Amino acid sequence: MTKASAYTADSITVLEGLAAVRMRPAMYIGSTNINGLHHLVYEVIDNSIDEAMAGYCDHIKVTVHMDNSVSIVDNGRGIPVDIHPKENRPALEVVMTVLHAGGKFDNDTYKVSGGLHGVGVSVVNALSEYLEVTVSRSGCRYYQRYVRGVPQAPVAMVGETDKTGTLVRFRPDEEIFEEMDFQYDVLAKRFEELAYLNPGIKIEFFDEKSQNRDLFKYDGGLPLFVKNKNQDNGIHKIISGSGDMEGVSIDFALQYTAGYKENMYTFANNIRTREGGTHLQGFKTALTRAINTYIQNSADLPKKLKQKVSGDDVREGLTAIISVKIPSPQFEGQTKTKLGNSEVAGYVATVVYEKLNEFFGENPKDVRLVIEKVIDAARARDAARRAKELVRRKGALSDHSLPGKLADCQSKDPAESEVFIVEGDSAGGSAKQGRNPKFQAILPLRGKILNVEKTRFDKMLQNKEIKALITAMGAGIGEDDVDLSRLRYHKIIIMTDADVDGAHIRTLILTFFFRHYEELIRQGYLYIAQPPLYRVHKGSFERYIKDEAEMSEFLVQRVAEEVSLAVPGRTPVEAEELVSLLNKILALRDVVVDVANMGIPEALFMRIVNAPTPLEADVLRTSGPDGAFCVHMAEGGYALELVREHDEPQNGEALDSEARYYLRFTDSNNHVLRLGVEFFNSKRYRRALDLTARIGEVCPAQVWTIRHRDAELEASGLFDLLRQVLDLAQKGINVQRYKGLGEMNPDQLWSTTMNPEARTLLQVGIEDAVEADELFSKLMGDKVEPRREFIERNALLVTDLDI
């Protein structure tokens, strides 16, 4: 046996402490993508919520800073700082550096605690570039700083205070995480849930980059949660109740709406159990049993309402929230978000059944509305079943009667067959002529198909376009009847125009597939065609370009053949060197646009970036900006001041705040902009510095003369240079921007969008089914208000507006 392959005790690697976390982060936080990034915030705020559930905290503040660091401060008791008896070091340091250390691992400190993986804040410390913790406790403030999990100095007392609480500030490590930008809406949604689930707690959230700010405080708890989910569209007053059994705390609230969609939200120890579990099972059992018992035993109900109903019937149009708090939760399922404690089903069923019976006995008018809704659902379900059987008997949903508008393919092998769903007959005509009939089928749909989000199942089956879609696929329809082994095509490709109408039709089709063929999407059978955005042609030359980025790349490559730049003190910049330079300026322009969206004007940002020396947040905090930087900014028309501020307590709040440092810039028009010094640690600032330095290597003075054939043009700056060069690149060529597939002839459609060897397809996937479900409900459902809020919040992010 060779030494390399010997398997001895020396082969066993022991990862000490937090090194294991950095080596295999996904084992501890699920992934290193955006979900893992958010999980860091959840782990820290869970500690504050544990304090709240134990009755010691009622206020939490979360701030996402300019450099993507996050600070979370609460007014709990503060993490203990006395010496730990086993570890012989402060308990604060133990909590921050030892896995599975903390008060939540015995049931005395916290009877119930959150945290999905139960790994504690030490994992956040291990996966952060730096983490700072400040504890206010027993009249003193204590501080410690860590770099990638390693303490930089012992815990130190840094002052006195009359408050209590913990402040944690961390910056995720760019070496670990693929993405560093926190998504405001995702975090805000989680904080909103926590505020509903823990009535009385106040959670403030502020994102310095987007300037979005929210305050979450819901003393009404779960009933208010249901009320807001239903947007006051409930048909009766909200039913709610709570109880305790064997140390398990159970809360629920429910209300029926006039709609048809079931909305069930379940939580265990404040964690969203997206896959349900035993608490959901117990709730469903109790609800069905309580309604059937009432129907059977009520003498007042008319005969037409006397019929037994199923679980599906009692949940149509229902919004329900179930929250349980358990000393030792067991999570199962693919994403560990399914509650597995078997005893909980019985506890929940008992409490919910008892509370429902109480409500039914005391509120006969409300119960009558519920029963009418449920019986109506049962009849509609029966009508849908009969409608399905009728169309099946007539052969309308069978393979033997394919829709007349379907141009089918010759192949009968689903694995090689694909169907293009196209809008309108003109695009359908081009697609039929351009396709390869051996394996490509075309199904044209007329106009905008039905919005299935607002339509009952039996009505949906009567729609011609929907019926054609179901029949063409051949996999059946309905919860119990979909059989993907009968699917006739393993590539279902949505091909619509690149305009607003095309986007709307695509959304309607996606809504249909998400609501009725979710498993088809999960198995990767649904795609979106990506027709080119531009056609560039000149004489016999022709090229199709898919998007703006590729267009810029094409223009840069083209202009490099005809243009050179005269730069003082060196040979002209041309050919590949010119391409490289222009690509760097394009990348810098993207950073400038990003920063402008954060509220920092281009002129100010570029002045800062072109300063004699780079700025560093830590240096600014201790020494302020140096004289050379102040002079540089003054020459650009900006007065400069370093400001140190504390977040002032409001309304007598008991939060201990952190000192914050800002650079305050005042321009010649007296416009003031405050910029947190953390910004100078940000990836955007560092990227801009790097690009500017590399551009400066080509031309330190940044004085450019553009030579094009016999002409010379002067450029007054980087972006003026880029604009002029790209304008020159477009001279002499024809650029056509496509808006409709009908604008292409069959050969063009084949070569750009349908030919498997040349086309680009976007595979539709479901990363988060619950998020997708809520987004479809928000954007495609009956309620206007959530749609308006979504548009208002995202309006400034629009880059292409088609009016």
Structural class: alpha+beta
Integer tally of domains = 4
The CATH architecture of the largest domain would be 2-Layer Sandwich
Termini Cα gap: 73 Å
Average the pLDDT over all residues and give the rounded result. 83
Number of alpha- plus pi-helical segments? 26
Rg (CA only): 31 Å
Strand % is 15-25%
CATH class of the largest domain: Alpha Beta
Low-confidence stretches: 3-15
Q: What is the chains' assembly state?
A: single chain
Envelope shape: flat
CATH topology of the largest domain: GMP Synthetase, Chain A, domain 3
The count of strands amounts to: 30
Major β-sheet, in short?
9 strands, mixed
- Portion of residues within helices: 25-40%
What are the salient characteristics of this protein?
single chain; 803 residues; Heat Shock Protein 90; Ribosomal Protein S5, domain 2; Rossmann fold; 4 domains; 9-stranded mixed β-sheet; flat
Please, could you describe this protein's structure?
- With 803 residues, the chain is of the alpha+beta class.
- It folds into four domains: 19-216, Histidine kinase-like ATPase, C-terminal domain (Heat Shock Protein 90, 2-Layer Sandwich); 221-371, Ribosomal Protein S5, domain 2, CATH 3.30.230.10; 394-531 and 744-797, Rossmann fold; 542-741, GMP Synthetase, Chain A, domain 3 (2-Layer Sandwich), CATH 3.30.300.
- Helix content is 38%, strand content 20%.
- The chain has 26 helices and 30 strands.
- α8 (278-297) packs parallel to α10.
- The longest helix is centred in the middle third of the chain and has 30 residues, at 364-393.
